[in-house]
Amino acid sequence: MPQLNENYLNIKQSYLFSEVARKTAAYQEANPDKPVIRLGIGDVTKPLASKVIDALHEGVDMLAHAETFKGYGPEQGYADTRASIADYYKRNGVDVDPDAIFISDGAKSDTGNITDIFGHDNTILIPDPVYPVYVDTNIMCGNYNIVYIDGNAENGFLPMPNFEQHADIIYLCSPNNPTGAAYNKEQLEIWVDYALKNDAVILFDSAYEAFISDPELPRSIYAIEGAKKCAIEFCSLSKTAGFTGTRCGYTVVPKELVFTASNGTEMSLNAMWNRRQSTKFNGTSYIVQHGAKVVFTEEGIAACSENIEYYKKNAKYIADTMTKLGINFYGGINSPYIWFECPNGMEAWECFDYLLENIQVVGTPGAGFGENGKNYFRLTAFGTYENTVEAMARFEKLFS
Ligand code: MLT
């Protein structure tokens, strides 16, 4: 009999969004005549921009001819796609070495896989509430030394470091999933200062950077001086370009990230991640990378922004409804998520059932993101405008 990875005994039996989908499907099966509006998982509804579709078609056509056919690609990603991403960073005022960029199938996989290059005795700082992948993937590989830092109404769900508390690894997500709150430059400077003082690594998830419209808010941790010495950044085309089903993301591991191993050897995180990827990953498909390359051109970003504006209009519609109903909420401005306090003192899963049964609107219970989410609820702006308006009309009926 194999010895099993019994760390799995210490995580919830099903992943948060699978649980939401399971409950929704059960309700829908029992109530086929009641139309359910899904504003739970942050999955996009708009088709890909036509420029991106053209590039994907072109990628397919290239595979049809011997002269342009591609087999295995570089595990780090094609050079022209990495250069296109570096150029996008540059237009946003940040210099990133294309050799530090690794193309993947999404930020979710990479934020989980990154545990491969760290040991198991680190003190890991994780905000609560947080995207559940960070905690689950650490538990799965036996990393139990997790210190939660509280995000709450008092700090606007933007927890700051306690300089008395040591950390080796720090997870940050801004704009935040689930709360929609975004760190400003001064706050991120404090985090970078803290990481440098602790010789720690920040794992910075910027999957929602494209939703930032306030020019004062950093879209990358590398907008902060010193961050290349202490931060890995994860980003995704899921929300930037609607690639939730197409799958593409990238991780930036600066060459400046060098630490000393217990035997005194200098180890580069860039080299380690490269080793990890070339061993366990065969690269994102050529077709997808060809589309991704176009996403990050000026025209590609402009085309994708039309969809982002559409979702931001939904976010504003939800936020305005919450304001009208006197429901306390966060996010919805530089983010596609609205994080609100469950009305009438309900707990998060109770609120989930209440909304599903009474108005057939599905959201994500805050409790799934951590203890501090137990009285909160998340709605996504990634639905269609029509569904968003209808969901909010149902909210108004229920809560006014
Ligand atoms: C979410 O709803 O939190 C995200 O869509 C999940 C993800 O990106 O994996």
Short recap of the structure:
This protein has 400 residues and is an alpha/beta fold. The chain has helices at 16-30, 50-63, 79-91, 107-113, 132-140, 185-198, 237-241, 269-280, 286-295, 298-325, 348-359, 385-399, and strands at residues 37-38, 101-104, 124-128, 146-150, 169-173, 201-205, 231-236, 249-252, 258-260, 266-268, 329-331, 337-341, 361-362, 364-365, 376-380.
List keywords for this structure.
alpha/beta; seven-stranded mixed sheet; globular; 400 residues; binds D-malate; single chain; four-stranded antiparallel sheet
Topology:
Layout: H1 16-30, E1 37-38, H2 50-63, H3 79-91, E2 101-104, H4 107-113, E3 124-128, H5 132-140, E4 146-150, E5 169-173, H6 185-198, E6 201-205, E7 231-236, H7 237-241, E8 249-252, E9 258-260, E10 266-268, H8 269-280, H9 286-295, H10 298-325, E11 329-331, E12 337-341, H11 348-359, E13 361-362, E14 364-365, E15 376-380, H12 385-399
Parallel strand pairs: 1-13, 3-4, 3-5, 5-6, 6-7
Antiparallel strand pairs: 2-8, 7-8, 9-10, 11-12, 12-15, 14-15
Bound molecules: D-malate.
